[in-house]
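Shapes recur. Our protein:

. . .
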Amino acid sequence: HHGVAVFLAVTTCTCLMFIYSVGYSLSTTAVNGISKAAEATRAARVPPPLHGYISIIEHKPLKMHCRSCALVTSSGHLIGSGRGRQIDGAECVIRMNDAPVAHSYGPDVGRRTSLRVIAHSSMQRVLRRSHELLNSSQDTVFIFWGPSSYMQRDGKGLLYNNLRLTSQVLPKLKVYIISWQKMLQLDELFKRETGKDRRITNSWLSTGWFTMTIALELCDRINVYGMAPPDFCWESQHPSVPYHYYEPTGPDECA
């Protein structure tokens, strides 16, 4: 009887140890599975860096990705379009230079701004309206472009100096510049697409060009708002449309 009791006790302990071992193994597997799933989710939330767009303070590449983008031009074709709600429904809304969203423009152009691409020549206009475009835009990413002489970090780069000062006054502002290496790549892209050498023809790329190329890197899907057909100005009966939606009495788009 004593031997039987010892056998039963040993068998019971062995079974309990086996059950505990299996339970611990399953628990560990489950925890590891949850951890890996959490890591995958976190990795999915962190977009890959977009090299060539460098932060003015930390000198790190922009990390941003959008599944859907609304690229809003500054065209007068947007006046009376009623596209504001559709534009704001995109994951990211991209605008150019100092194009406003305040006042009565919202129903036509929307009110959100995720990214604003700004030319060196528009810097002063943006600063003059800093309360509207900068102070209320802490979540907006700003990408500035300009000639290499404006971007010098030796104290002689006018645009770079202004951006550094602005970032010190508004430290939460997300300010980026296009590096000179990226500018060279965009020059080559322009030459491949048009057959023209920008430097030989002594021409400048437009903010619209930079904005579109940035959007192609940034977005999975792009809807462009306000862009007229290429032959619009050649039509004999085309309507008069202001160049900018926020300057209704300004120059005509086709002038």
In short: The chain is about 40% helix and 15% strand. The longest helix spans residues 2-45. Residues 1-40 form one domain. Strands lie at 49-55, 61-63, 66-72, 92-96, 115-119, 141-145, 174-178, 219-225.
